[in-house]
Amino acid sequence: MNRLGPESDSSTDGDATHPTSSQKQDNIPLDVARTEEKNVFRVKILVALILLLAVCVVATITYLLVDSQERSNFESQFTGYASEVVTVSREKTSQLFNALDAFSVSISSQAAGELELRNLSWPFYRIPDWSVRAQRLAQLSGVEDPSVFFAPIVQQEERKEWEDFASHSYPILYQDAIEKEADKEGTTAKEFLDKTVPIIHKIDSVDGLILPSTAPGELLPAFQQYPLNFFPLLPIMSMNFDLRTSEDINELFEVTKAIKGPTIGAFSVSVDVETQVPGSQIMQPVFDRADTADEDRKVVGIVLLQLYWLDHFQNLFQGGDADARIIVVLKGSCPALPEAPDNVVDKARSFDHIVTYQIDGSKPILLGEEDLHDPKYDSLEVTETFIDLGIDQSKVPEGLCVPTLSLHVYPSESLERKFETDNRAIYTSVVVVIFAFTVLVFLLYDFVVGRLQKKVMDRINKQDMIVANVFPSAIRDRLYQAQGNALQQKQMVGESIDSLGYPKEMGTFGTAPLADLFPNTTVVFADIAGFTAWSSAREPQQVFILLESIYGALDHIANRLAIFKVETVGDCYVAAAGLPEPMDDHAIIACKFAREALKKMKELTHHLEVSLGPDTAALDLRIGIHRYD
Fold it and tell me: Which of 515, 444, 507, 445 has its CA nearest to residue 475?
């Protein structure tokens, strides 16, 4: 072994400073820790996003489920309302036609006996107790305030005789109406007779003049009426008005004669100068005989009932309040017919009767003579045919038809709002609050765990620094790995353990000894010449300042030159080149370390002479180098 410098004293005190492994190796655990910290942060962000997404998804599903339930309740309630509207409407129309048929049969039956007894014939017949019968018809048909007319068929040759018969009959008919109709109290038959036209007449549609009827063929004068009222918009009675001069009624009459059965048509009645109320005219034939099986019986007159749909829909829907509004669209249509000849006006194909009503509870309101329902409720439409007389269209005169009337029922927006509650917002808010509370608990838990982990990591880092001061990073990592393997093996091996609880083939501290052979290395020994005499005259603090300054400078040189510091014993500093990382020029590196150490020693002693005393500059460094090959 070679020595540089004077002989040195030695002492038994020891000290440990920083490891001699490279700075790159020392930064590896720190880089790994930072990488793991970033990964954990990313996981936390991902979990937060997943929780946020879960809140949105669950809140949306909750909102949609509650909304679907409310929608289901609304649709279910509407279906019940619509079913009630359709059922009651069909029952009322069926009851109406049955009552009209019975009314016609009773007239034919009674007239046949009386005419034979008096040796008379149609049309010279006056229906007795007309007002009572008509009131009974209204009750049986379920129609409030209907207008009912009886009109016999009068041939042209019977016209004069009929007008005389009617003139003699009206005082009796008016007096009967005054006695039977409550609203006619205080009136006299003369008031009505003064307003009665004594001839079968028509009313000019242009200037409103009353003219004799010029209809060819059969005449159809209104003879008996209930209730007894004046002609709409004119101060005259409807009596003797030829119904055939009305185009709509004439078409009904032609169909009724052809099929010998009831028929129905649309019309609008003028209530005043500006108001018209939509309704339908139902015509029921009156026969000369009451035998319904007799196909040869003759139509001798008609009963005409004017039905206002507002009256028909009264008390139709009993199951709701004022907000439970149902929209009812009444549509009339004719069945498909063969193409009409060019010279025939096809009135059947132009038949278009659409009326929209709003039913609030039991009260109907006319909205207009068109389809006015909200299209957004098309999917909830309830459609039902409620008037279909089932007539063979081949028997109907060409260009005419007996329409089929159908009901189209829709909900209204007010009905839907009735089932809209705050439950959607409430339940959705509850879900959001629950998830928000869960997120807060998660964040609190993460905060507490993070603090605990930080404390654990701080303690581990401190321990790692202590280990790093004793061992180089390569040896330190091998010690950690060996310790981990030892603990794992201890858990797996239960029998072969020593008295301290470790496997017998391991060392006392639970790990196999770490021993590596480095055949090519150079060892450097350096001690402070004159240190024993110098330190005996100094305070402990001054001794510590000197050793810390010298060893710190040597550590810095060793780290820069990749010299491994073995140990310090008192004033002796031991280092080696070529381990733990082998190098070919280990001897040269050791010599460089020695040269720089000598130079640094002189600089430090001269610098510390001011604070540590004048004889500090007399201290010197003795270095010995030994090369192993």
Answer: 515
